[in-house]
Amino acid sequence: MIFGRVKPLDAILATAEKKSLHRSLGAFQLTMLGIGAVIGTGIFVLTAEAAQKAGPGMMVSFIIAGVVCAFAALCYAEMASMVPVSGSAYTYSYAVMGELIAWMVGWALILEYAVAAGAVSVGWSGYVVGLIEHTFSIDIPDTLVLGPLDGGLINLPAMFIAGLVTWLLVIGTKESATINAILVTIKVTALTVFIVLAIPVMNSEQFSPFAPTGFIGISMAAASIFFAYVGFDAVSTAAEETKNPQRNMPIGLIGSLGICTIFYILVAAGVIGAPGLSTQPVTAGGIALEPGSRELAAQCAARAAEGLKDVVCSKEALAFTLREIGWPQIGNLLGLAAGLALPSVILMMMFGQTRIFFVMSRDGLLPQAFSKIHPKFNTPHVITIITGVAVALFAAFFPVGQLANISNSGTLFAFAAVSIAVMVIRRTEPNRKRPFRTPAVFVTAPLAILGCVYLFISLDHKSIILFLIWAAIGLLVYFGYSRSRSHVGRGIIDVPEHEAYEELDPPVPGTH
Predict the structure, then answer these.
(1) pLDDT(63) > 70
(2) Sorting pLDDT into bands at 50, 70 and 90, what band is 286?
């Protein structure tokens, strides 16, 4: 039966109840937490990709992606408040819809985290290479800093940062709250400076035509830009520490997403309106070329040789824009800010990846070796190294937009599953304690599901096909290995996740 083998919710919650946290967070703190977790990677690295798909219409794309996230966030918040434990969407699904759905959600999250970490590594590479080239007036060969689809051979800086983060995770180095707060401040300050310098010099002629590729292009850009909002569930998972969660959670979630959306629209407007730059999609035969393709790379190289300046061709769109509007040193500083802040995002994503693997291994669904703890460093070193190698290979050979789209496919599947789970558990366990209840759940949850489906089908065909192949492999692994070894299937009530993590580093905010 598809909804069979449900992991008892009471067993999952037993430890959480023993270790209940002090309720100290108000609406303002939740909103700040959300802004810190959300703002960053996507806006730094995907602005050029979005412009290639939608031109100035990408401003609408940010609104669409933000609205879908808001509906999904409200569903996430109810599950997080009921099941405030590790494993997030995977654990929620196991408790509500059974092992097979939970396996598929966990399998999708594996795709999301590893590929997203690869995408951020490529984004980091673009900014750091641009910073080095402009600071020292040198030209680093594209062969060594771009993947084969982007007109190069291998992206060595992206491989380097992925390898460095893997090493840090293996030896047990984790972000402290103080370092994380500093990095969040750097990111937000950099984007604020960009807005202050770019908005006043905007040229309204740059916004015409507003939607050169029509609503399809805007939808495709929204599907990519969704990557820029991932992290909002840091607010959802703080439900256990929130004062009056029924009031403060929606304020924190919608407030942080609203502020981030305004931030993103202003940044997009600053990029689009920059005088002297082209933010229209680069075309061939009247058709917009696919971001991250060899054809676009070749066309960009030809246009650059003619002295044309296209934002869509830049690997560091925000720093590039500042340099072109007369602020070269500030552009370099923004590149430095991205170089400092983005590795922490890679670390959070890889930590989240190993965490999902760890929980699935503890449940018997993956080999026990995956949850092996290093005797000296006290970290799950086996799965961290496997993850690190995968991330480094993704980063070395694939363009950032393709990686972000593939990652989004896994995220959208997981969010849709959580939205379904909220409705299911309202019917099956209506009397269970809910510190936060999704408002108008039978309207909100279906809208979240429809939004996720809409963004999923707006992804490029390659990303959809790769996700379906990944899902098919997941089903083969489940029925060939995991089903027969599952602890729940064998009648073993496993240790609740809080205890399973006592050996590991504490959770990192902003992972899901």
Answers:
(1) yes
(2) confident
Between 236 and 496, whose confidence is greater? Answer: 236
* Paired tokens of 338: 């991205």
Supply the pTM of this predicted model: 0.87
Q: Which of 211-247 are b and which e, b meaning 16 or more Cβ less than 10 Å from the residue's Cβ?
A: ebbeeebbbbbbbbbbbbbbbbbbbbbbbbbbeebee
Tokens of 388: 């690190």
User: Is 60 exceeded by the pLDDT of residue 397?
Assistant: yes
Q: How far apart are CA 379 and CA 382, in angstroms?
A: 9
Tell me the two tokens of residue 205. Answer: 């002629």
Average pLDDT over residues 96-121: 89
Residues in the chain: 512
The angle formed by the CA atoms of residues 303, 307 and 312, to the nearest 5 degrees, is 50
Cα distances from 383 to residues 326, 351, 387, 389, 495, in angstroms, run 47, 10, 6, 10, 20
Query: DSSP character for 277?
Result: -
- 353 Cβ partners below 8 Å, 6+ apart? 109, 110, 113, 114, 117, 387
Q: Give the span between the Cα atoms of 440 and 467, in whole angstroms.
A: 31
Give the three-state DSSP class for 2: coil
